[in-house]
Amino acid sequence: MTAALAHARSVAATVTDPELPMLTLADLGVLRDVALEDERVVATITPTYSGCPAMASMRDDLVRVLRRSGFADVEVKVSLDPAWSSDWISARGRAALAEAGISPPGPAPRRDGPVPLTLLPVRRALTCPRCGSSEVDLTSEFGATSCKALYSCRSCREPFEHVKEI
Amino acid sequence: MNHHVNDYDADHESVYDGLLGGDASQWAFGTDFEDPLAGMDTSVPAGLDAAELADLCLRLGDDALVYSHRLAEWCSNAPDLEEDIALANIALDLLGQARLLLARAAAASPGLVPVLPEGSPVPVEDRLAFFRDDHDFRNVRFVEPENGDFAVTITRLLLFATHRLAVLERLRAHPDAVLAAIAAKGVKEVAYHRDYGGRWFVTLAQGTDESRRRLLAALETVFPLYDELLATGVADVRDEVEVVVDQVLAVAGVERPDVKPIGGARHTEALSRMLAEMQVVARAHPLGVW
C-alpha cells in the first residue's frame, strides 16, 4: 500500500455516520473500500437499508473530508452486494453504541432458504445499556430509524434503542 | 394597520437566511441527487433481454412505490405512535426498493424514461415515478385501494409482504447481478414487514370482539384482489405464499373468506387519484431545483 492510499484510508475512516454520529462509517461497516486510481480516491459505501436517506450525506461528508485533506479528486461509489449486515459493525462500534445508550445488535441470522415466519414477539437476550438490567421489554420492532428497534427497561424505566440484527 | 408579514428587520429577511450557503450536505434534499446505483456495472448480462429485465424491475418497483405511498398516508394517523413509526419505516424500506428498482429499469432500458425539458435536474427514477401516467404504471391493483381502517391495512400488508418476500427470495438468484443484489437486500427488510403484519393479524383476530369483527370485515375487503397478486406476480410463488398465509390464518383462528376475485381493468380509480396527489408538485416544476 502506498503512503497516499494509507493516508486516504485513514482520513476516510474518520468520517462519522450522520444518524449515529458516535460511529464512523468504517465502524458501522458502511464504508466498504477506499482505493486510489491514479490521483483519484474512490470510496465505496453501502446503504444499511434500501431506503437509507443518509446516503447523500455520507457521500458529501466523505468528499468534503477527503478534499480538506488534500485529495482533490474524490469519487464515491455505491455497492449493494453483499447486502449490509449488522454483523459488520466493529467491536469498537459496538462499544461506542453501548456508550451512547444504544443496545448493539446480536449475531444476524444466516439464511439461504425461505425466512421462517415468526408470529411470537421477537426474543433477544440483551441488557439495558443504561443500567445493565436484563429485565427489558420490546416496545416496537421499528424505531426512529430503520435500523433500530425500540425497547424499555423495567428496572430503570428508561426507553432505549436496539440496533436490529439483519 | 400593521401587516405582520412586512414587519421584519431588513438585516434578517428570513429566519432561514443564516442557514443558506455553506455546506449543502446539511440539507435533507441536498443540492443534487446521488445516483442510487453510482459506480455499479449496470450493463445487461449476455443472454438477458434488456426490455424484459426493465419490465420486471418496473413491475417490482411500481408495486413498492405505490404501496409505499399508501402506507405513508398513515403517517400521523396511526392508532398509536409505535404503529405510526412502524408503518412509516415499512413505507421507507419500500420506497428505497422502488428507487433502486426504477433506477435499474431505467439503466436497462433508457427509452422507458419520460423525456423532460432540456436542463431538468430530475433523475431517471424520479422521472419514472412522477412523470408517467396511471396507465403506464405496472403495479398490481392489490396495492392501489385506500388504506381503510387498521385491520384492512394489516391484512393487506400481511398478504403483500408475504408475496413480496417469496418473490424477492427467488430473485436473489436472478442472472442480473444488480437485481439479485436489490432482492437480497429487500429480503432482509420485507421479512420484518411480513412478521409485523402477521403478529398484528393474530392480535386483532384474538383481541376484542370489535377487533375481530373488523378483521373479519377486512378479509372480505382485501381478498378479492389477492388472486390477482398471486396470478400476475413476477414469479410463480403461489405455493410458498399460501403455506405462510394458511399458517397465519390457522394461528389467528380465522377462515379464509369466500370471495370472488375481481377481474377486469388493469388499474383502479384509486391509483389515478393517488398519482394526481403524488405527482402534482413534480409535474408543475420539471425544471425545479430544491
Structural notes for this entry:
In chain A, 22% of the residues lie in helices and 22% in strands. With 166 residues, chain A is an alpha/beta fold. Chain A has two domains: 76 residues, GMP Synthetase, Chain A, domain 3; 50 residues, no CATH class. In chain A, the strands form two sheets. In chain A, strands 4-7-6-5 form a four-stranded mixed β-sheet. Chain A has a three-stranded mixed β-sheet with strand order 1-2-3. With 290 residues, chain B is mostly helical. In chain B, helix 2 packs antiparallel against helix 5, helix 4 runs antiparallel to helix 5 and helix 4 crosses helix 6. The chains are: A alpha/beta (166), B mainly alpha (290). Chains A and B meet through helix 3 and strand 3 of A and helix 2, helix 4, helix 5 and helix 8 of B.
* Poorly predicted residue ranges of chain B: 1-10, 25-33
Q: Please identify the top-level CATH class of the largest domain in chain A.
A: Alpha Beta
Distance between the termini of chain B: 35 Å
Q: What structural class is derived from the secondary structure elements of chain A?
A: alpha/beta
Overall mean confidence score, pLDDT of chain A = 93
- The total of helices of chain B stands at 9
Strands side by side in the biggest sheet of chain A: 4-7-6-5
**What level of helicity do the residues of chain A show?**
10-25%
Structural class designation of chain B: mainly alpha
Instruction: Please identify, by name, the CATH architecture of chain B.
Output: Up-down Bundle
- CATH uppermost class of chain B: Mainly Alpha
CATH architecture of the largest domain in chain A: 2-Layer Sandwich
Question: From N to C, what is the helix and strand string of chain B?
Answer: HHHHHHHHH
Summarize the amount of helix of chain B as a percent range: 55-70%
